[in-house]
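Assemble and predict.
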Amino acid sequence: MTAVREFNFGAGMPDPATFPAQALADAAARVLPHHAMDLSKYPDRMGLPALRQIAADRFERNHGMRVPIENIVLTNGSMQGLMLVAQALAIQRKPLIVEEFTYVGTLNVFRKHQADLVPVPLDDQGMRVDALEEELDRLSAIGRTPTCIYTIASHQNPSGTTLPLDRREKLVELATKHQTVIVEDDCYADVQFTKHAVPAMYKLAEPGRVLYLGSFSKILGPGVRLGYFMAPEPLLSEMLSWKIDGGTSNLSALIVAEYFKEHLWSHIDEANAAVKQKLDTLLAALEHEFAGMDITWTKPDGGLFTWISLPAGTDRARVQALAKERGIVYATGQAFDSLNRDVPYLRLAYGFIANDDIPEGVRLLAECVKLSLPVGAGRR
Amino acid sequence: MTAVREFNFGAGMPDPATFPAQALADAAARVLPHHAMDLSKYPDRMGLPALRQIAADRFERNHGMRVPIENIVLTNGSMQGLMLVAQALAIQRKPLIVEEFTYVGTLNVFRKHQADLVPVPLDDQGMRVDALEEELDRLSAIGRTPTCIYTIASHQNPSGTTLPLDRREKLVELATKHQTVIVEDDCYADVQFTKHAVPAMYKLAEPGRVLYLGSFSKILGPGVRLGYFMAPEPLLSEMLSWKIDGGTSNLSALIVAEYFKEHLWSHIDEANAAVKQKLDTLLAALEHEFAGMDITWTKPDGGLFTWISLPAGTDRARVQALAKERGIVYATGQAFDSLNRDVPYLRLAYGFIANDDIPEGVRLLAECVKLSLPVGAGRR
């Protein structure tokens, strides 16, 4: 069997070529010899202060709001933050609002805790807040206030959409009216291709209305496993009471804090330039290969994903089987559907794959799709 | 206010002076530049193979049994393993057997999950298996098989006791008879002052009867946050299905694996020699300061703790207040009591405190105890 060339549009990972492996090695060599004590002890319950400081600096630079590090807790990636949300908010058998399509890892956490997921539709500007309002009114009428509204408002996974300011304000207003918490999963925030970020809801809302999840995985790399959450009391203590893991690694945090102390913004700029180039290559290839077909895709201004809508009758299983033969990895629409329906979408991640492989990967994918279209469909 | 000299007999931490900070820095400098890819991707679901290999080698050297790395999963310290136990075994409102006194972190996890804790008494050889048998029979008679038997069989926390082979065999026999799982928390196993370890129950029992929790925290340092569990299927998949944290840090695991590849056994020897010296100093000081009093303590042959039994009527709150004034940190008996009773014990940890501080710390502690004894007690 000949090894097939791989076109990995699968997981949401950054560009490995811009991963600062040598710079992290240098940071480790500088910082570790002076921290035998921090490594011999259990970490601070909230995590290494130096890295929480960097999370605070980052938020202040993006949103002009200073969050005290007493409201910031390091986690083993933002996924641990999400586990703590599920535990602290006791989501079992209660309504929990999500975007109709959302991150498969999030769905996994919420399903393991038996949340009653209530989807709200997305359009090209993220969650439809008019539909959210209806859903909240409906739940209110039956006395079932949701435990939270979970949203990836910026560079949403899988759709690549970003909720604009007016929708964020409306979302905050609705959450306040219905006395529920917004869980703002902002893990893609730093993968931003425009100059200014849309304001975080953590800034827009009254304290305690929003629980913010952040990550260092998407700008550095998921192998590092460092994220954080931000929340004021009493939410913070409720989350912390479930963080019974002995603390977040000081070994990782010392190294990453030492590196980011000098290089946070320059690394973000460099990493984003590489990923943006790949997105441009991808969008051009999609334009070229799917021209004239009844296929659409989102045009993200950040993040790691575009979401591709296929003609309704496309044989998705066949697309996948053919793609597999050609070494193409992508994520199916179904993986992201909050109700686990086989929806006519697929997600392409463009951070990890080499830029030069993108055109050929898209050409082959288009071939697979064309071979799987419903009779009479495809051309418009 | 004058700063008080601190005598830290508090947490179970290794000797900071033998922490290999420079060697870890060197390992990081060697290994990280070659692993941009491992750091840009999500870790293997089971954790970095190289470090799981070291866990397997370690177990084989100690117990003469080769565990395939497919049965070993890295965790964020053994505490994460314990959280997964609570989730995978669905311990809510069901009996769960523990040693009468056990690790406060364990109790916290089990209580957060509302387990119905069933204590079994300890003596100077660990869990009393005769009492365990009675307890299991009693539970069986009322149709309430426990979800598991949790035990720190080697160098128990807080008691410092080690379960001998015959009791281990009996424990395995009882668990098998009653069709329940033994959770063998072996996190202190490597802090061993005698040449040979008592065989692990993971080796003694049929596959699937024992779930093994291991740790690198006690030989390296808890700030590193790396542990592991070992289990065969289907237990392994049930545990893994709750490990929705995006994986255990490749950054930490790469560095620690690179260091341990060459230095595991030499580091264990060096670290244990330092800790053993402190234990000897502590035992001599206890002998000297508490001579002739109605006070006993355990004489561990490994681990990080001795467990001190005070006369029944000792005013424990007064001991603690006086100790605090003198800068002495220790853990109260109550912290470890599975039923949260204020029991007449205290735990001294001897890994972290400097050897030279031990005699003075014990002298001051004895002063506090003597000032808090019940009228007419103390001397025998």
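The first strand of chain B starts at residue 7 and ends at 8.
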